[in-house]
């Protein structure tokens, strides 16, 4: 019987080795271990085994059972894993099929830049305020040191409704309103639409400005520079550097043009910046003491700076938009590109 | 403003390259926009003398010339017909690149060597030339054989086009720019000897007298007379200079006035004395009915707001702008009267705008000619008359100024100047910068005392001096600062604008629904009213008109958002974009009255439009519901009567608190769809942001969740078409009593089998108790009550 058990074990192991599927395995399991199975027949035969051999025989049968069971369990694990793998393989989908649900739209590039500028300035302690687009001449010009028939009026072609009311040509008008209403120290920015009687490839009669004004006791050109560096770095990247060039605006003195290193080449010079490495981006300066005084702020105590980028231009530079007019045509094929 | 290098060199020594000079000027505030080398197209072109002309053996139209070009005798084949032996002509040699794009190489013409080409004025880019303009340019006999043509033609100057800022009228002149260069290069200005002789025994009073009736508009008027005038061509050097700065030479007297205009920035005028009635100049404003025919051949009416230079009878010049045809200097002038004056800039600007004439004079006067300038200008003009021998200068100059202009003595605070700049500049440097700029300065502790020349009208306060210092010191000083942003500023709390913030929230939501943001013009055409069916009774009818629009299409401020976004939609369709959703955040401008006396109401709106087969009224309803969910707002939807909406497929959103319309949405009016070339099923919405922004955020009060299971049931009923879904759901809710958890419609079905004007409405509802698990009996009782109530209230039958 001992030999029988051993040869059974060998045979069983051989058959299990040849087993190829979970189904075959289950059949073998019944064949070897089932109630009518071969191992059971050995157990049945135990009654004929002499008493003193019983423990040894029993041990032998149990070992054989354990060995086979172990082997079957191992194989079962292997086959089940294999089967799962096959199943997963068969369920594979084409992930390049189109997505479902509503396709998202997108903000206009202009307002994306506006929002970024606003958020950056609010973080720096600026209050965002808006003002009327149809404005009195006083707020747009006179209170900004540009009396009627001043030559500086030629710097911009203004739309007039009548002698006294115009479409603001600059968001600086909001500066004046703010200076008259707020007590220094304050920091404000004013985003909005502006209007000039100008229409060509680089000028739109309706355009957008983002005016900033800080009035405080110890504000200098250095604060202007550091603040603008932060603002422009936020738009164009950490390593952006800026430089000042002298300029003239009636409401600031000294006045500067602000250039930033070209975001495309980082200052080395490329097609975008016409080889100069810099991009002319905005005008800025220290608020003219005359303007402070006109708004009732003591210019001996307080200084201030102002800056006013054209946001249309910034949006064009950020997104490398080749033609200003595309921004206002709103062709969906243009807008889709900015997703 | 154009200046030339040689002209500047009359006033200051310049020993750096034109490029380096341009950079210095630009970096100190006078931006050089362009540098033009006059000899750009004249390289390798020399003066040649034709020694011999022979016929070309193989070509009838060609001649072979032997030409002396100084260094050698060379051979040139030409087709020119206007040349003869001994003529001096411009000869372009191999390597020359001419103004018309021709590049010269040695060549063979029909087998004969030709080592260059004779040039026409066009090929050389010469504009000031009195000779025959066709054919080869024949040079004056003073040209030297072999000389560079640029020298022979006095075309070896460098021209700078400078963008002079509006605060520096004094820089609208050669001397003004020379002063800047003198300060930049730390080189003294060359003294100008403006000497001339006068005829001692013949006084100006014998020729003209001056009366200024309005000395606000004309603070200074100077005049003198020149007798025995010999009108002729100006010398070449003078003509060349005028041409190089873009002024056409006319005759010696006119050229002198123009020369002074450029050199000293003082506009001048010359009258023919014999045409001044009463030998008198009266400076006064125009009178009704007066008019004047001027040099541009037009006649202008003058009025009491326009300053004129008049004689005893009539206006002869529109002051500072343009001279009259009847009194100008011409070939038969024998006595000329020279005017050198200053006029109030605003008045000149207004008049120039009004009549639409702008001259070189106007350009200076409207920026401001200082009160010292007429004297200097007059001296230079007389000096030129004298040196050019243009006539005899009579004794005396009339001058109406009451008080001789004096330099201003001003005090500034160094500490405040440095506070503005953020840097400290050593006293020695401050003094040298200011003194070089002609501002004689002294420092006494914190006080900076400056003597400001009359021509520096722009210098008034600390900030002005700060700018003078920093633009000369160099803005590069700031390159090295890398401070923390706003390090020196007081800490303030940042704050968003509520309207912009709400707009942003709504924009993000709309983007999630597939809408793209657009930016449209807020100005539009008048015909918008017709296109949108806006009638005269509507508040949208009164649009603010722009007085000076760039075109009629952009002549009015919009009163509605609809036009812009529907036009954009239409444009997209015309570009074969067939399905899209767009939105815009913007303002409309509602005048309180027209014509406008005070500022209009500017109302912030969000508008959106869908051209998409999947969308309908209810898509928009869903979007609106979701957009409004955040607010503490009780609203109703009423059929809208907004003129551009479909009256049966659109709704006003009405705030039940105050009955105000917050917005409108739905299908656009079919006629409007047609007017904009849009599909009939175009959906549009507009929401008044200003009415939303004042609303509170919706508050919440959360109930405990029931421990007992909820029961779901579905029912389908048939009812009349005019029964609304709202009526059905209200009835269901009431029938359920306190077991009600929720109910919603999931299908609406219409079919002739159901009955005419009938619909089937299927809805599901959920019942739940806080106290116990509901029994079948309780549920059935509720269902029966629902059906009974529906039958009783709205005549509905179980389907």
How is the main sheet of chain A built? Answer: 7 strands, mixed
Classify the secondary structure makeup of chain A into a structural class: alpha+beta
User: Within the largest sheet of chain A, what's the order of strands?
Assistant: 1-4-5-9-8-7-6
Q: Poorly predicted ranges of chain A (pLDDT <50, ≥5 residues)? A: none
Number of helical stretches of at least 4 residues of chain B: 21
The largest sheet of chain B, given as strand count, sense and whether it forms a barrel, is: 7 strands, mixed
In short:
The complex is a heterodimer of chains A (about 350) and B (about 800). Chain A is about 45% helix and about 20% strand.
Structure description:
The complex is a heterodimer of chains A (339) and B (799). Chain A is α+β, with helices and mostly antiparallel strands. Chain A folds into two domains: 2-90; 109-336, BirA Bifunctional Protein, domain 2 (2-Layer Sandwich), CATH 3.30.930. Helices cover 43% and strands 19% of the residues of chain A. Chain A contains twelve helices and nine strands. In chain A, strands 1-4-5-9-8-7-6 form a seven-stranded mixed β-sheet, sandwiched between helices. Chain A has a two-stranded antiparallel sheet with strand order 2-3. In chain A, helix 1 packs parallel to helix 4 (54-91), helix 2 packs antiparallel against helix 4 (54-91) and helix 5 (109-123) packs across helix 10. Chain A is rod-shaped and about 130 Å long. Chain B has 799 residues and is α+β, with helices and mostly antiparallel strands. Chain B has 21 helices and 39 strands. Chain B has a seven-stranded mixed β-sheet. In chain B, strands 11, 13, 14, 21, 22 and 23 form a six-stranded mixed β-sheet that branches. In chain B, helix 11 (414-421) crosses helix 13. The model of chain B has no long low-confidence stretch (mean pLDDT 94). At the A-B interface, helix 5, strand 1, strand 2, strand 4 and strand 5 of A face helix 8, helix 11, helix 13, helix 14 and strand 27 of B.
């Amino acid at each position: 019987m001992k030999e029988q058990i051993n040869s059974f074990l060998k045979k069983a192991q051989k058959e299990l080795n040849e087993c190829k599927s979970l189904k075959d395995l289950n059949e073998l399991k019944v064949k070897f271990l089932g109630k009518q199975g071969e191992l059971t027949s050995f157990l049945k035969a135990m009654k004929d085994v002499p008493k003193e051999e019983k423990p040894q025989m029993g041990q032998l049968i149990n070992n054989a059972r354990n060995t086979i069971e172990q082997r079957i369990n191992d194989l079962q694990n292997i086959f089940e894993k294999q089967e799962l793998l096959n199943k997963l393989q068969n369920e594979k989908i084409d992930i390049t099929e189109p997505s479902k649900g509503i396709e998202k739209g997108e903000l206009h590039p202009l307002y994306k830049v506006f929002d970024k500028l606003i958020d950056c300035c609010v973080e720096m302690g600026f209050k965002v305020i808006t003002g009327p687009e149809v404005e009195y001449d006083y707020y747009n010009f006179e209170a900004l040191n540009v009396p009627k028939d001043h030559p500086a009026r030629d710097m911009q072609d203004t739309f007039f409704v009548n002698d006294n009311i115009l479409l603001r040509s600059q968001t600086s008008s909001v500066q004046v309103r703010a200076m008259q209403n707020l007590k220094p120290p304050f920091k404000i920015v004013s985003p909005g639409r502006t209007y000039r009687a100008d229409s060509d490839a680089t000028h739109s009669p309706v355009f957008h400005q983002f005016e900033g004004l800080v009035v405080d006791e110890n504000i200098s050109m250095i604060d202007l520079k550091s603040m603008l560096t932060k603002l422009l770095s936020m738009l164009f990247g950490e390593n952006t550097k800026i430089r000042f060039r002298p300029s003239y605006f009636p409401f600031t003195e000294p006045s500067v043009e602000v250039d930033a290193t070209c975001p495309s080449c980082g200052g080395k010079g490329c097609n975008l910046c016409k080889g100069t490495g810099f991009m002319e981006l905005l005008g800025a300066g220290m608020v003219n003491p005359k303007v402070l005084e006109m708004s009732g702020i003591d210019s001996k105590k307080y200084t201030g700076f102002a800056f006013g980028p054209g946001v249309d231009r910034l949006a064009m530079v950020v997104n490398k938009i080749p033609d200003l007019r595309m921004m206002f045509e709103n062709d969906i094929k243009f807008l889709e590109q900015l997703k | 403003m154009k200046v030339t290098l040689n002209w500047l060199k009359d006033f200051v020594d310049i020993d750096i390259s034109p490029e380096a000079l341009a950079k210095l000027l630009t970096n100190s505030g006078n931006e050089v926009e362009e540098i033009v080398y006059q000899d750009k197209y004249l390289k390798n072109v020399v003066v040649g003398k034709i020694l011999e002309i022979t016929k070309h053996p193989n070509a009838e139209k060609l001649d072979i010339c032997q030409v002396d070009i100084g260094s050698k005798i060379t051979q040139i084949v030409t087709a020119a017909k206007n040349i003869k032996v001994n003529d001096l002509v411009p000869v372009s040699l191999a390597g020359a690149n001419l103004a018309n794009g021709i590049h010269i190489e040695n060549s063979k013409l029909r087998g004969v060597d030709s080592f260059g080409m004779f040039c026409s004025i066009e090929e050389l880019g010469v504009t000031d030339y009195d000779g025959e303009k066709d054919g080869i340019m024949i040079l004056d006999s003073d040209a030297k054989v072999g000389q560079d043509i640029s020298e022979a033609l006095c075309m070896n100057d460098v021209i700078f086009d400078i963008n002079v800022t509006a605060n520096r009228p004094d820089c609208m002149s050669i001397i003004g720019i020379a002063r800047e260069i003198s300060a930049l290069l730390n080189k003294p200005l060359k003294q100008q000897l403006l000497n001339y002789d006068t005829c001692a025994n013949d006084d100006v009073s014998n020729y003209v007298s001056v009366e200024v009736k309005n000395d606000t508009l004309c603070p200074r008027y100077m005049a003198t007379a020149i007798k025995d005038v010999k009108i002729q061509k100006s010398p070449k050097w003078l003509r060349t200079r005028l041409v190089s700065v873009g002024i056409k030479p006319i005759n010696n007297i006119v050229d002198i006035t123009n020369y002074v205009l450029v050199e000293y920035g003082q506009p001048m005028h010359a009258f023919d004395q014999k045409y001044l009635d009463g030998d008198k100049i009266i400076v006064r404003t125009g009178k009704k009915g007066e008019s004047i025919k001027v040099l541009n051949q037009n006649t202008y009416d003058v009025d009491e707001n326009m300053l004129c230079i008049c004689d005893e009878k009539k206006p002869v010049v529109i002051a500072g702008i343009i001279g009259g045809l009847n009194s100008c200097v011409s070939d038969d002038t024998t006595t000329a009267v020279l005017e050198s004056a200053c006029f109030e800039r605003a008045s000149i600007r207004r008049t120039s705008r009004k009549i639409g004439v702008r001259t070189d004079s106007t350009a200076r006067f409207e920026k401001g000619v200082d009160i010292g300038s007429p004297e200097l200008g007059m001296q230079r003009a007389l000096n030129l008359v004298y040196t050019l021998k243009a006539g005899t200068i009579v004794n005396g100059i009339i001058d109406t100024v009451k008080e001789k202009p004096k330099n201003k003595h001003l005090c500034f605070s160094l500490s405040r100047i440095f506070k503005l700049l953020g840097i400290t500049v050593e006293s020695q440097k401050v003094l040298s910068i200011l003194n070089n700029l002609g501002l004689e300065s002294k420092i006494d502790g914190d006080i900076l005392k400056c003597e400001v020349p009359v021509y520096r009208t722009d210098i008034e306060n600390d900030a002005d001096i700060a700018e003078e210092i920093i633009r000369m010191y160099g803005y590069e000083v700031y390159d090295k600062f890398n401070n923390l942003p706003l390090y020196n500023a007081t800490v303030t709390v940042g704050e968003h604008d509520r309207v912009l913030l709400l707009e942003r929230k709504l924009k993000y939501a709309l983007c999630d629904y597939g809408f793209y943001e657009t930016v449209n013009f807020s100005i539009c055409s008048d015909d918008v009213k017709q296109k949108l069916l806006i009638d005269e009774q509507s508040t949208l009818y009164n649009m603010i008109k722009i007085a000076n629009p760039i075109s009629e299409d952009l002549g009015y401020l919009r009163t509605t958002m609809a036009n812009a976004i529907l036009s954009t939609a239409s444009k997209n369709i015309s570009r074969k974009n067939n399905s899209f959703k767009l939105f815009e955040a913007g303002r409309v401008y509602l005048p309180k009255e027209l014509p406008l006396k005070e500022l209009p109401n500017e109302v912030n709106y969000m508008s959106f439009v869908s051209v998409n087969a999947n969308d309908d009224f209810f898509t928009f309803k869903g979007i609106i519901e979701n957009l409004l969910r955040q607010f503490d707002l009780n609203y109703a939807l009423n059929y809208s009567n907004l003129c551009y909406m479909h009256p049966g497929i659109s709704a006003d959103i009405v705030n039940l608190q105050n009955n105000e319309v917050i917005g409108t949405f739905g299908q656009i009016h079919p006629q409007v769809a047609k007017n904009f070339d849009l599909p009939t099923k175009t959906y549009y919405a507009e929401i008044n942001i200003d009415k939303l922004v004042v609303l509170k955020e919706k508050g919440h009060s959360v109930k405990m969740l029931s421990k007992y299971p909820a029961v779901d049931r579905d029912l389908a009923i048939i009812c009349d078409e005019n029964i609304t879904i709202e009526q059905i759901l209200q009835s269901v809710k009431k029938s359920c009593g306190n077991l009600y958890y929720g109910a919603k419609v999931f299908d609406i079905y219409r079919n002739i089998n159901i009955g005419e004007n009938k619909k089937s409405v299927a809805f599901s509802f959920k019942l739940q108790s806080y106290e116990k698990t509901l029994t079948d009996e309780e549920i059935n009782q509720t269902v029966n009550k629902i059906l009974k109530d529906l039958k009783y209230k709205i005549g509905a039958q179980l389907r």
